[in-house]
Amino acid sequence: MPRYTVHVRGEWLAVPCQDAQLTVGWLGREAVRRYIKNKPDNGGFASVDDVHFLVRRCKGLGLLDNEDRLEVALEDNEFVEVVIEGDAMSPDFIPSQPEGVYLYSKYREPEKYIDLDGDSLTTEDLVNLGKGHYKIKLTPTAEKKVQKSREVIDSIIKEKTVVYGITTGFGKFARTVIPINKLQELQVNLVRSHSSGVGKPLIPERCRMLLALRINVLAKGYSGISLETLKQVIEMFNASCLPYVPEKGTVGASGDLAPLSHLALGLIGEGKMWSPKSGWADAKYVLEAHGLKPVILKPKEGLALINGTQMITSLGCEAVERASAIARQADIVAALTLEVLKGTTKAFDTDIHALRPHRGQIEVAFRFRSLLDSDHHPSEIAESHRFCDRVQDAYTLRCCPQVHGVVNDTIAFVKNIITIELNSATDNPMVFANRGETISGGNFHGEYPAKALDYLAIGIHELAAISERRIERLCNPSLSELPAFLVAEGGLNSGFMIAHCTAAALVSENKALCHPSSVDSLSTSAATEDHVSMGGWAARKALRVIEHVEQVLAIELLAACQGIEFLRPLKTTTPLEKVYDLVRSVVRFGK
Question: What does the similarity note say (predicted)?
């Protein structure tokens, strides 16, 4: 008998269908009938006949025709959503899909795998796992280490040894010994009680990164999770079954407890879960639709799933990769602006930078030389002002290697810390199979990634700060020798006047966002956790700063391409002409 899972006003209803000849409209009415039946006030409706609705697939949000037969329109066990007329404008409306659903409607299950061993994951690997490019499998060595670690836990339970988090309560309740017959209940209660985050859920890419990173840490073999449970978690990752993880609620010590608890909550079949097939639905329905069973937690396994810095680190990983990309793009954009403003290449001379040999500075100067006028890539624009009387350029042009350079060095520094963190065991207690014992420590403390990501935000912001000043030079006719605000018919058109204002607004926001979150600490858990990192906010605001940097540099790129139009028919270098052509393939010249 076909069955459909139907979303009505934030609730999920399993609706069996005895006759596939029935229509989509019947399914919608039956779902609404069941919804009304379960409500004390009938959901505010006198009867099903008073309800006007649309029915759409959860996957891709495609609207369905109410007259279509179910056997034609839907697959068995498909997830659909009934949108009642007027609800979409209600503040209480809960859509089944996250923002940007168009990004996920074309999801294709990957065929390639990444082998995880807990020791060799890179930031690039994790970002690709987040994008859904790979599935996961464990290496044979990792499987053996996980099994050995679990044997220690089983021994502790068999011998009734008192060990924190295994046979005791947590935090302030660490001295409370739990009876053997309550140990599994202890782990479930831990996950439920700690699932107390707030805010928007992580988008699928970020939740996928979070889950993948937790799997990598568990694969190290110091957490005490069973191989059976870990393989169940991997199956859920490979099916892209992603729990509802609110973005706020972690103080970054003892690890990212709230977000990782929400992650674990979905894995045990509770709370909400998302998949490309279902959209947001009750976790038990999503798992069932993919032929998966919820994890049944064994002693210590709840703690193994929720204790660590993976929220901070996974978001930090995305931040580092995006920062690396925009830093390279910033050099290209700045070089194009320098050409439009008829700057000189002399400031990028090899000998100058050899006298102050910071690695980032030398790399940026090399990129500028590779892009600007040279024997290999001559520029007609550069040739047109070769014998002008200008001696040197403004700092925003001349000092790009020094300013952009330290940003590159900052990113490299942070990337090293994040890479170490990706492959670190951050549980408590740690399970040492070779010693046959557990030891309590503080590897869960998020100070390392928190401090690094605060530093990253401060460093990457400078790319936007200097870019905004270059936009000002492009728009200001007294500085650029170009039409005011880069428009031919000034007055009739305002050109880039307000685009520059947008850039200034974003730079100003960044100044506040760059205040370090890791300088703060609030004692929690009845002073048991009396110093915390606030690394979750450090990671989230670093991503916001990077987003603003991307936007400011995009404005500069558009402005530089607009400016070069007023220098035609002269051409710049071949590499920069290709950049111009790429921009013009999507954005036309604004007259």
Answer: Belongs to the PAL/histidase family.
